[in-house]
């Protein structure tokens, strides 16, 4: 792998104080998950204990899932070292308390409420006991000791919810339903529970991006993927929503669809939760749009293309929700030979670097952003695990956690300094780890 860049090459003339001030100001008007940061990462330090929750695959019905997780695993965070430790007196992992047909399955995606002590888990499966209702979302209360307490479960109206997020206002929750190719909007009560009086609204990705004009691409190699051999092909048989999240201002909701090679942008009604006036932007055919993050300025968006192992750089207009594709850059080193599937992406706290994940290559790609927003691959770092699915920063932004869900069965921890990352030597054993979320 390429040699590590020097501290001088990674240095930017921004003081820590001004950086913290900017991030805190951004947090007032945005959901930091859309920026690629955790909900608490604008805080320089937590005022109390911090807890970590790892979503896992519990059902091995599909080989790539693994199925060795126990539910939502729960830990206490050592903020000085980044270590994750069992919560005293609490079970290692929790499932909901429903009957056998509705017990939590594959809680692969987690999201916390922006202001309440609530955590949500997207149950990634296609049906409940053979019914057509598909996947679901479970709500948990975060108790004083950090342990999770089951509150309720609701059907999301779609199949295989691969990603969930909560709007910054805390009134609505979104699910990206992979197998059914649609997005659900679920209303939340003032206490963070599900509002059963308001039906779940489902929006089809194909309808949003032009119906018959919006067709899945053929499996052809995108130009930006030609720098390496082993272009991956899968799931261009129809729409597959892979991520849904509001923009930094909370006025639009964006959806990345892997099967359609597009990002869809909806206007969002903050009072009713209605999505309307969709627009979309296409990436290269067969790229496989997967996950995205915003730059802290709210004007630049970086999208991971799973099949092509590329990063699409887009400009974003916050007034209209319109995205414009600028460029696509390989996330793998030139000359790499072999298949790889890109997955997670996360903006680093300095706002000048971000990281993305490569499955099978099993690496973290570190990118540097220039003054025009263009990303440049700096180097790769071994993830110390197999098939990295997602990565998340702790609330302080000092540590990066990488979840491995296929055969790695662990979470690895990296220290973040000056826009670079270094492995801490710490592994946390979690079967089929898919995502991690923090709460203070």
TrEMBL record:
Keywords (A to Z) from UniProt: Carbohydrate metabolism, Glucose metabolism, Signal
UniProt keyword Repeat present: no
Pfam family, one: Lactonase
Family annotation (InterPro entries): Cycloisomerase_2 (IPR050282), Haem_d1_sf (IPR011048), Lactonase_7-beta_prop (IPR019405), TAT_signal (IPR006311), TAT_signal_bac_arc (IPR019546), WD40/YVTN_repeat-like_dom_sf (IPR015943)
Signal peptide coordinates: 1-44
PROSITE patterns with a match to the protein in the record: TAT (PS51318)
NCBIfam families per record: TAT_signal_seq
Family according to the record: Belongs to the cycloisomerase 2 family.
Name of this chain's protein: 6-phosphogluconolactonase (Cycloisomerase 2 family)
Organism encoding this protein: Rhodoferax ferrireducens
């Amino acid at each position: 792998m390429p040699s590590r860049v020097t501290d001088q090459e990674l240095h930017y003339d921004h003081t820590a104080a001004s950086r913290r001030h900017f991030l805190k100001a951004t947090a007032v008007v945005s959901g930091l998950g859309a920026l690629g940061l955790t909900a608490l990462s604008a805080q320089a330090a937590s005022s109390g204990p911090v807890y970590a929750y790892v979503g896992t695959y519990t059902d091995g019905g599909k080989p790539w899932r693994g199925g060795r997780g126990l539910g939502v695993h729960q830990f206490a965070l050592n903020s000085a070292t980044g270590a994750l430790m069992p919560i005293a007196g609490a079970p290692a992992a929790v499932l909901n308390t429903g009957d056998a047909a509705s017990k939590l399955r594959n809680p692969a995606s987690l999201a916390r409420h922006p202001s309440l002590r609530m955590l949500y888990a997207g149950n990634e499966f296609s049906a409940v006991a053979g019914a057509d209702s598909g996947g679901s979302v479970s709500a948990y209360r975060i108790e004083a000791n950090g342990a999770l307490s089951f509150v309720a479960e609701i059907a999301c109206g779609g199949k295989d919810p691969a990603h969930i997020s909560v709007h910054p206002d805390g009134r609505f929750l979104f699910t990206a339903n992979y197998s059914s190719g649609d997005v659900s909007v679920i209303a939340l009560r003032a206490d963070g529970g599900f509002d059963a009086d308001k039906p779940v609204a489902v929006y089809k990705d194909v309808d949003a991006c032009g119906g018959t004009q919006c067709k899945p691409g053929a499996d052809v190699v995108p130009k930006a993927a030609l720098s390496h051999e082993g272009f991956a092909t899968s799931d261009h048989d129809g729409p597959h929503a892979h991520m849904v999240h509001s923009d930094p201002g909370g006025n639009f909701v964006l959806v990345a669809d892997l099967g359609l090679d597009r990002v869809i942008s909806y206007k969002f009604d903050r009072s009713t939760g209605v999505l309307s006036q969709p627009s979309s932007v296409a990436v290269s055919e067969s790229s496989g749009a997967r996950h995205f993050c915003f730059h802290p300025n709210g004007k630049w968006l970086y999208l991971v293309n799973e099949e092509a192992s590329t990063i699409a750089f887009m400009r974003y207009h916050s007034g209209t929700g319109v995205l414009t594709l600028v460029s696509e850059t390989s996330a793998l080193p030139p000359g790499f030979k072999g298949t790889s599937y890109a997955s997670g992406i996360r903006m680093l706290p300095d706002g000048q670097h971000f990281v993305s994940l490569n499955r099978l290559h099993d690496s973290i790609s570190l990118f540097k952003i220039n003054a025009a927003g263009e990303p440049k691959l700096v180097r790769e770092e071994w993830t110390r695990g197999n098939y990295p699915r997602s990565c998340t920063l702790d609330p302080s932004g000092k540590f990066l956690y990488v979840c491995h869900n296929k055969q790695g069965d662990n979470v690895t921890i990296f220290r973040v300094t000056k826009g670079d990352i270094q492995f801490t030597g710490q592994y946390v054993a979690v079967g089929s780890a898919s995502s991690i979320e923090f709460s203070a």
